[in-house]
Specification:
By secondary structure, the protein is α+β, with helices and mostly antiparallel strands. The chain has two domains: 20-196, Lamin Tail domain (Immunoglobulin-like); 210-246, no CATH class. It has three helices and 14 strands. The strands form four sheets. A six-stranded mixed β-sheet has the order 8-7-2-1-11-12. Strands 5-4-9-10 form a four-stranded antiparallel β-sheet. A hairpin with a 5-residue loop joins β9 (125-129) and β10 (135-140). The protein is elongated.
C-alpha cells in the first residue's frame, strides 16, 4: 500500500506543478491557448471606438484570472490597459470582450465583459499576457511596436476618414501561426462577440470556477474549545484544479 501511494504521488506531482501560467506558455507555443481573435483600434466614433476580443480555441476551460491586455505605441512604449478579474474562467469555444469606455468610446451593441479607458494607438500593437507580463499572444500594427508576430499588420489610419466600422479578425477563429499578416484579415463590418454570444459561455462550465470556504472555526484556544487554533478550510468542489494565486 505504501508503494502504491508513493507511485501515485510521483505521477501526480508534475500535474500539480503544471500551473495555469505554464499551461498558457505551452499553449502559446503550440497555438492551443487563448488568443486575440478580433480587434478594432478605431471606429465610427473615432480613436477610442475600440474593442479587443479574446477566444479560447481549446477543448478545456482556461483560468485567465490576472491576465492582462497591454498596449504599445509605434515607438515601443508599453502600458497596461486592463487586468482580468479574479475567478474568470473562459470555457472552450468562448469569447471574452474588452471595450474602451473612454470619451467617444466603443459604439458597438455587443456589451463588453470588461472595459478600459486608455486607447491603443492606431499604429501600435497589443498583447495578451500573464500577470507577470509574459506574452501569450500579440499583434502589431507597425515595425516599431513592442508587440507583434512575424509580418505586422498595416495600420488602418488615424484621420476622420479612417473612422469606419472595420477591424482585424483571424482568418480562422483561434488559429495562430505566429505571423500576424497570415493570421488576420480585414473584416467590414467588425463582429465583436462576448461571453453571452455562445450558449453556455456566460457562466463558468459545470465543475469549474471558484473554490469555496467550506468550514470556519473561530473559537480556537478558548475555554472548552475543541481546537487550540482558529482555522479556515477552503474546498474545491469541482473535478479540476482551481488557481488560488493572489
Amino acid at each position: 500500500m505504501v508503494k502504491r501511494l508513493l507511485v501515485t504521488a510521483a505521477i501526480a506531482a508534475p500535474l500539480v506543478l503544471m500551473s495555469v501560467a505554464d499551461q498558457a506558455r505551452l499553449g502559446a507555443q503550440s497555438g492551443t491557448s487563448v488568443v486575440i481573435n478580433e480587434f478594432r483600434v478605431r471606429g465610427p466614433n473615432g480613436g477610442n471606438d475600440e474593442f479587443i476580443e479574446l477566444f479560447n480555441p481549446t477543448a478545456a476551460p482556461m483560468d485567465i484570472s490576472g491576465w492582462k491586455i497591454r498596449g504599445s505605441n509605434a515607438a515601443a512604449g508599453v502600458g497596461d490597459r486592463l487586468t482580468v478579474p479574479p475567478s474568470t474562467i473562459l470555457g472552450p469555444g468562448c469569447y471574452y470582450l474588452a471595450t474602451n469606455s473612454g470619451s467617444s468610446g466603443y459604439s458597438g451593441t455587443v456589451v463588453g465583459n470588461q472595459t478600459y479607458t486608455t486607447g491603443i494607438t492606431d499604429d501600435g500593437g497589443l498583447a495578451l499576457t500573464l500577470a507577470n507580463n509574459s506574452i501569450v499572444d500579440q499583434v502589431g500594427l507597425s515595425a516599431g511596436s513592442a508587440f507583434g508576430e512575424g509580418t505586422r499588420l498595416t495600420s488602418l489610419g488615424s484621420t476622420t476618414a479612417s473612422n469606419l466600422d472595420r477591424g482585424y479578425s483571424r482568418v480562422a477563429a483561434g488559429v495562430d501561426t505566429n505571423d500576424n499578416d497570415a493570421d488576420f484579415d480585414l473584416l467590414t463590418p467588425s463582429d465583436p462577440q462576448n461571453r453571452a454570444s455562445v450558449p453556455g459561455c456566460a457562466s463558468p462550465p459545470v465543475g469549474q470556477g471558484d473554490a469555496v470556504i467550506s468550514q470556519v472555526y473561530g473559537g480556537g484556544g478558548n475555554s472548552g474549545s475543541v481546537f487550540t487554533n482558529d482555522f479556515i478550510e477552503i474546498f474545491n468542489p469541482g473535478p479540476d484544479p482551481v488557481n488560488l494565486a493572489g
